[in-house]
């Protein structure tokens, strides 16, 4: 009885060993899915689903200007309080325009039926003056991205963030967006000179 039990245990152990060796051999010949940083870096095409810190999205006609309309939804919904938006100051009143505004005229000493239109007010600038993100506090919950009504926020693909100081993780997203727009403009291919037509070459 004891010998049979020992044989069964040996067979069971051998089977477990073979199963483990099979898994090891299969993973050994499989192509690598990790990279040895900093000798190699992950290509951008593999960072589509990566969720780094948030960043601003530029407008279509002006990539250096964010789509943000300063509604403060992202700042109010953030549970960590890591977003700080600075609004643009209200437009200053132009005394020249106010002086040029037509006063309430009285013709022939009688009160007019319609009063003169007041001078048109200047529209406030919706683009934020400052957009600061304290990444030290961010929990990457994504509520700010979901709450934005104009899709002005997205997750970045910065996967190599590392520093010794907390100050390095306080980002000025307005300056970051301008730098990204300038970098994209510099990397964009220059338009080639128009090739002359055959008839024009002969002339």
What topology emerges from the helices and strands here?
Layout: H1 2-29, E1 54-56, H2 73-77, E2 83-86, H3 95-100, E3 130-134, H4 143-147, E4 153-155, E5 170-172, H5 173-187, H6 198-202
Main features:
203 residues, alpha+beta, 3-stranded antiparallel β-sheet, two-stranded antiparallel sheet, 5 strands, elongated
Can you summarize this structure?
This protein has 203 residues and is of the alpha+beta class. The protein has helices at 2-29, 73-77, 95-100, 143-147, 173-187, 198-202; strands at 54-56, 83-86, 130-134, 153-155, 170-172.
Architecture overview:
This protein is of the alpha+beta class and 203 residues long. Helices cover 32% and strands 9% of the residues. The mean pLDDT is 85.
Strand order of the largest sheet: 2-3-5
Largest sheet: 3 strands, antiparallel
How does the helix and strand content classify structurally? alpha+beta
Question: Into which percent range does the helicity of residues fall?
Answer: 25-40%
Q: Runs with pLDDT <50, length 5+?
A: none
Order of helices and strands: HEHEHEHEEHH
Radius of gyration equals: 32 Å
Rounded mean pLDDT is 85
Strand content: 5-15%
Q: What is the number of helical segments per DSSP (H or I, 4+ residues)?
A: 6
Instruction: Kindly report how far apart the N and C termini lie.
Output: 107 Å
Q: Which of globular, elongated, flat, extended, rod-shaped describes the shape?
A: elongated
Number of strands: 5
């Amino acid at each position: 009885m004891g010998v049979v039990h020992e044989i069964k245990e040996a067979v069971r152990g051998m089977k477990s060993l073979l199963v483990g060796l099979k898994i090891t051999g299969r993973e050994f010949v499989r192509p690598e899915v990790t990279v040895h940083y900093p000798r190699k870096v992950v290509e951008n095409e593999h960072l589509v689903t990566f969720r780094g810190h948030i960043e601003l999205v530029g407008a279509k006609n002006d990539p250096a200007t964010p789509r943000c309309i300063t509604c403060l939804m992202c700042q109010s919904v953030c549970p960590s309080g890591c977003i700080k938006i600075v609004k643009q100051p209200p437009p200053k009143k132009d005394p020249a325009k106010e002086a040029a505004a037509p006063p309430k005229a009285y013709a022939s000493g009688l009160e007019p039926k319609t009063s003169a239109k007041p001078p048109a007010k200047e529209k406030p600038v919706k683009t934020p003056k400052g957009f600061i993100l304290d990444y030290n506090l961010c929990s990457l919950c994504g509520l700010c991205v979901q709450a934005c009504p104009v899709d002005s926020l997205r997750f970045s693909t910065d996967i190599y963030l590392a520093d010794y100081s907390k100050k390095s993780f306080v980002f000025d997203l307005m300056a970051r967006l301008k730098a990204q727009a300038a970098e994209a403009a510099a990397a964009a291919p220059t338009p080639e000179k128009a090739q002359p037509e055959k008839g024009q070459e002969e002339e």
